[in-house]
Amino acid sequence: MLPVWRSRLIRLLPALLAAALLASGCASPRAPVIATDLDADRVIGLRVGQSLVITLPADRDSGRQWQLEQPTLQALALDGQPTYMRETVGGSADSQTAQSGSETWRFVAVRSGRDELHFAYRHPDDGQAPPARVIGYSVSAR
Known about the structure:
Layout: H1 4-24, E1 33-36, E2 43-46, E3 51-58, E4 65-68, E5 76-78, E6 83-88, E7 98-109, E8 113-122, E9 133-141
Parallel strand pairs: 1-3, 2-9
Antiparallel strand pairs: 3-7, 4-8, 5-7, 6-7, 8-9
């Protein structure tokens, strides 16, 4: 007969192992990678099938929005259209106290390779004018 502590340990072992795998990220290799403007100019690594979610600061009241500069991607595919979320100070999303917001772009790694994502923050009708801000990411998928 096993000591009581050993039998309890044997019963808890699967749960402890599962918790360790979840904590290390091994149980979910396809969890999305989240990036912001603070991650610009860094290399982002993805596995094929994994998502990349990029959230950039934006103020649509200024008339500007983020534009993806390259027409084709090799390893990534745009996953839907970018979304805009207005952030407010002291009110609801439709109140006049809105200060700024964020624009979220979603991509999925569809094959191994490397892409350079370049975003320009400008007025959509003025593609020739220099952008107010430029942000880039280097993405490697394997």
